[in-house]
Design goal:
This is 3'-5' exoribonuclease. It holds the Pfam family Rv2179c-like. The chain is an alpha+beta fold. It has one domain: Nucleotidyltransferase, domain 5 (2-Layer Sandwich), CATH 3.30.420.10. The protein has 7 helices and 5 strands; from the N terminus they run βββαααβαβααα. It has helices spanning 45-51, 55-58, 64-78, 90-104, 117-125, 133-138, 147-163, and strands at residues 2-6, 16-22, 31-35, 85-87, 114-116. The protein has a 3-stranded antiparallel sheet, sandwiched between helices. A two-stranded parallel sheet has the order 4-5. Helix 3 crosses helix 4. The chain is globular and about 45 Å long. It starts with a strand and ends in a 7-residue tail after the last helix.
């Protein structure tokens, strides 16, 4: 389960600020948090403000290559086989992780696909209009834009869907 905060809408022109990941297992104790120094001189103040950091703080974060290599190592140590990228907003979160992995590491351990929690839930309920219902019903951890907390809440929701019959490979 992955969540990303950024200072703009697209990679390269703007920068990822921080991201969090949680391995989907019952204990939800395997967590990763990365804070990444900007790769661009551009940023949108309102977008950066969502993360709770100032530009000055953002500029003091770690180099992207070191963070992404550390994340790749963490994935290898904590996930058997190829990890599956799952997030609340797959189209947004995946583009950042994919770009940063390819640019700074040379490959994306997640491959070229992922899963969006809302789509899984809508499919289970056979109703594409239920996109927000799962968030309100199943998240326990408050969604506060700290990416580890947000990933944790999403993982909690997915585990509730598993109890409802969603098959999730171990």
């Amino acid at each position: 389960m992955v969540d990303v905060e950024s200072d703009g809408p697209i990679p390269h022109k703007y920068s990822m600020v921080c991201f969090g990941a949680v391995v989907l297992e019952t204990s939800l104790t395997k967590k990763f948090y990365g804070q990444i120094k900007p790769v661009s001189g551009k940023w949108i103040p309102e977008a950066l403000a969502v993360s709770g950091f100032t530009r000055q703080q953002h500029e003091q974060f770690e180099e992207p290559e070191a963070v992404m290599k550390s994340f790749a190592e963490w994935l290898r140590a904590n996930v058997k086989g190829r990890p599956i990228f799952i997030s609340d907003n797959l189209a947004f979160d995946w583009q950042w992780i994919n770009y940063y992995f390819h640019y700074f590491v040379g490959e994306n351990p997640f491959g070229f696909s992922g899963r969006r929690i809302g789509d899984l839930y809508c499919g289970m309920k056979m109703d594409t209009g239920l996109n927000r219902e799962w968030k309100e019903r199943f998240r326990k951890t408050h969604h506060d834009h700290h990416p580890v907390n947000d990933a944790l809440g999403n993982a909690e929701a997915l585990l509730e869907m598993k109890k409802m019959g969603l098959k999730i490979p171990s």
